[in-house]
Structure formats: C-alpha cells, structure tokens
C-alpha cells in the first residue's frame, strides 16, 4: 500500500539556518503530495502541495519539489525563524484530483532557537 | 467563512463507556474524513464520506468504531466500550472538489 517516510525528529536549528526535512513516498500512479504544519496548540494546516512531477509548491518561504524519479518531496527553507517551530507532516493523496484519504508520515518536530 | 469545527474539544471517559465525537464540516464540502493521531505518531485514516456514496470504512480499527454522516453536513464518530488504547486526538477534515483537506482543531480523548 501507499506509505510516506519522513525524517525522524526532533530537529533543532538556530534562527536563520537552512532547513531541510526529507520525505520519500511509495505509491502507485501519480499521487498528489502535501506538507501540513501543526503549530503549538493549533490544528493541522496545509503548508504547500504539488500535484504532478517537477511541480514546486511554495508558501511562507518554504518550498518542496515533486521528484518522481527519486519519489521524494523534501521540504526546504532558506532562513528559518522562531515562529517556524512546529510539527511538520508530509502526506500523499493517491490521485491527483478529487477526494481521497491522505496517508501521512509520522511528523518531524522542528524547534528554532533564537 | 467558518472552518471545520469539532466538539467536544476534550473528552475524558472511563474504560468501557461509549463516546460520541462530532464534526461540522465547511459548508458545501462534499467529502468528510476522520483521522486519529496517537501521541507522538502521525495521522491514521479512519473513515471517509463522499456525498451519497457508501463510506470508505477501511481504516476503522475495530467494530467498536462507527461513524455516520447526515447528508453533506454533520458527522458523528462513535466509539463503544472505550479502551485505553483509544486515547488519541481525533481529527476531522473536509474537502470540496479539490484534493485539499481542511482540518478541524480535533477532539482530545482520554480513556482512564
């Protein structure tokens, strides 16, 4: 079945450091890929998504590129801020349009130190 | 507009009791999903409703779990004879005609 594997946490970085959180997936066909973020005390929010190979999703300075050849969707940010401290989840949907259940990774807790 | 809402926000119950969790999706969203998030783990799919189609129940962990949805509105997740391993945050999400799911704040269930 479908699965998502993401970088084990926790990850601790200093402010303005470069961030990469790795995510790889296993799925048949052409899934849509997502990054969701859960800030402390808040619900899960969509951060960015990509629906086809070589698409780049971006939001709030974060980027991720859909790489079909490596089945990856790594999350990157050039200069992190304290406010980026949160838990990040990589997820996939097995079709690239319409409604389908999401398969999530286990989440990566990120802490940014001033 | 209003987002997905869930109630109660917290529920503490004794082992063996039944509980009902409620989800109000975004108005007009045809699809509704329930997920479970155990402490320190990722989200686990439970059940999915799409319009008037039969629900996808493939993620329900046991027959103690059931869910209903009234048309394209409110959904209720029921857990009968709760066990300690049912303790988790239960998340509801809804979506329209795209694949973007919008999540509610969750219900934290604690079974003593």
Q: What is the CA-atom radius of gyration of chain B, in angstroms?
A: 13 Å
Strand content of chain B: over 45%
Q: How would you classify the helix and strand content of chain B by structural class?
A: mainly beta
In which range does the helix fraction of chain B lie?
under 10%
Seen as an oligomer or otherwise, the chain set is: heterodimer
Fraction in helix of chain A = under 10%
Number of helices of chain A: 0
User: Largest chain-chain contact?
Assistant: A-B, 26 and 26 residues
Whole-number radius of gyration of chain A? Answer: 13 Å
Order of helices and strands of chain A: EEEEEEEEEEEE
Main beta sheet strand tally, sense and closure of chain A = 6 strands, mixed
H/E series of chain B = EEEEEEEEEE
The number of strands of chain B is 10
How much beta of chain A, percentage-wise?
Answer: over 45%
Mean pLDDT over the full residue set of chain B: 92
Uncertain regions spanning at least 5 consecutive residues of chain B:
none
Total strands of chain A? 12
Low-confidence stretches of chain A: none
Q: Structural class per helix/strand content of chain A?
A: mainly beta
By DSSP (H or I, 4+ residues per run), the number of helices of chain B equals 0
The general outline of chain A is: globular
Describe this structure as you would to a colleague.
The mean pLDDT of chain A is 92. In chain A, a hairpin with a 5-residue loop joins strand 5 and strand 6 (44-50). Helix content of chain A is 0%, strand content 49%. Chain A is mainly β. Chain B has no helices and ten strands. Chain B has strands at 5-7, 10-13, 19-24, 31-37, 43-50, 65-69, 75-79, 88-95, 102-103, 107-111. The mean pLDDT of chain B is 92. Chain B has 112 residues and is mainly beta. In chain B, strand 8 (88-95) and strand 9 form a beta hairpin. Classes of the chains: A mainly beta (114), B mainly beta (112). The A-B interface holds A 4, 32, 36, 42-46, 49, 51, 89, 91, 93, 95-107 and B 30-31, 33, 35, 41-45, 48, 50, 56, 59, 91, 93, 95, 97-106.
